[in-house]
Amino acid sequence: MCAKRIHLPDxxxxxxxxLIIRQIEREARVLDLGCGDAALLSRLHSxxxxxxxxxxxxxEAFALAMERGVPILQADLNKGLAILPDHSFDYxxxxxxxxxxxxxxxxxxxxxxxxxxxxxxxxNFAHWRIRLQVTLEGRAPVTDNLxxxxxxxxxxxxxxxxxxxxxxxxxxxxxxxxxPIIGTRAVNQALFANLRAHSALYVLERSAGxx
Amino acid sequence: xxxxxxxxxxxxxFAEVAPGCVRRQYATLFDSIATLTLxxxxxxxxxxxxxxxxxxxxxxRDNVIYICHALTGDAHVAGRNAPQDRKPGWWDxxxxxxxxxxxxxxxxxxxxxxxxxxxxxxxxxxxPQTGAPYGPDFPFITIRDIVSVHNALLDHLRIDKVxxxxxxSLGGMQVxxxxxxxxxxxxxAVLLASGPxxxxxxxxxxxxxxxxxxxxxxxxxxxxxxxxxxxxFGLALARMIAHITYLSEQSIELKFGRxxxxxxxxxxxxxxxxxxxxxxxxxxxxxxxxxxxDANSYLTLTRVMDYFDLTEQYGSLVDAFSRTQCRFLVVSYxxxxxxxxxxSEEIVRALIQARRHVSFCELSSPYGHDAFLIEAELPKLQQxxxxxxxxxxxxLRTGQA
Lengths: 211, 401
Description:
Number of domains of chain B: 2
Shape of chain A: globular
Structural class of chain A: alpha/beta
Radius of gyration of chain B: 21 Å
CATH class of the largest domain in chain B: Alpha Beta
Strand content of chain A: 25-35%
Number of strands of chain B: 12
CATH class of chain A: Alpha Beta
Shape of chain B: globular
Number of domains of chain A: 1
Oligomer: heterodimer
Number of helices of chain A: 7
Strand content of chain B: 5-15%
Structural class of chain B: alpha/beta
Order of helices and strands of chain B: HEEEEEEEEHEHEHHHHHHHEHEH
Helix content of chain B: 25-40%
Strand order of the largest sheet of chain A: 4-3-2-5-6-10-8-9
Number of strands of chain A: 10
CATH superfamily of chain A: Vaccinia Virus protein VP39
Distance between the termini of chain A: 49 Å
CATH superfamily of the largest domain in chain B: Alpha/Beta hydrolase fold, catalytic domain
Strand order of the largest sheet of chain B: 1-4-8-5-9-10-11-12
Largest interface: A-B, 21 and 25 residues
């Protein structure tokens, strides 16, 4: 028997993309790591005159990105970003991907070699419904956002907002903004965010003095 | 007619062509008034170019895809020149009606390169000053000279700008050089299994191939056109060596393994030269190659390849690519060890640094360097090239290129 799915809004939906776009100024250079079909980059390019580049492992997504006219590299984020030159982007977007990376801190370090700021959206596994599922059913959580059984899930790490803040203290970067996403809304401040948000957007910046 | 190779240029450009077949055409460029000054400073002219076209030029003349062939390719990309031809062109699986480079949509041009031996002026052509084949006196040429001739052909055809230039291996080097030295003339570049330079290992293999030709007693320092016998042995050996570099350990294993050519017993006889199937295959490759290729052209074009080095020429790859204006699609193959993925990645990294529009994909294939020519590998390549060209064409027409 499979664990029951919990319904939470799709974090890659327009609301997250809108939220990400609001953090980026016009004409910025933007890298989207795990860009999927490049819908976000396509908007950044056409509506905000950004210079964009996508990175994606999936070849079908690759073709979709090219149809949209978005330049894209096929690469596996778990194998590093050596193909990307130092200081070549203003922003790196990492949306709902960090939890799938074998060594997240190494990837974040590499990101700050390449980009000045990172916009990282992570799922919050401390959401109250997930906590309930774990507590009451005694099962690993399966949600609509993350609809995978534990044995075939691309998610290899389960983190909460509190965990992410902890990670940030160990990196070459600092948290500039934390924006919890509750339901379909992004809020700047929320009580009990770690309980109520299904995801959060972090605006991260390379720490002064680090290269 | 002096030689087999020079004879090609003597065909009438207005020869009848059977329905459904493609006609090889000729253009005479750089006539005696406007001679071509080569990168070396030497001059040559006139230059005959053999080329083929497929599809129909749009009224706005904006649907041109120019294909640059590799070391031993020719202008004959697709279809047949005559109904009885045994094989179609070298990229027939990729270029044609309804295929990846769709000739219902695009007007495709491919020309034999300068220095070649399949219709375009090269060492086997007659030197107008002496009336005899150039042979070893053919001037030293470079990729840039080859690209200059491609561009002169476009002038001749009254085409200002092409939608895309596509090429693999040595053809890819032409694509890069074109994008850098004639940036205003192309909208998109498709680069397959290529690199910003040939590796030292690649030069090493070329050196052995050239030595095989030089060492052939019939080579006669390149002056063999008037004799009955050509340096076939040396050229065949050069081809056998080079052919190994186009395959991979895995593809040789898959195709031949250690299977024997005759029965299942060793002959225990050193005079039995073809024991294994791979030997037979290489002998066949060498033998069939000498029927269609000229030894002096082989020397010329391998040197063209050895000399190509964008870093050496422009200071750095980033400086080189800062001159480009087009968008790029770069494709490499996992089992290609002649132009490994690291070479494509070097190009991509420099293009990103130069803030250019580049997409890159490493395709997984067991077929080595030749993968872009292998029928079974074409669907994967098609998945990338079709949307790339579609979008480039759309953006060109809507003025967003």
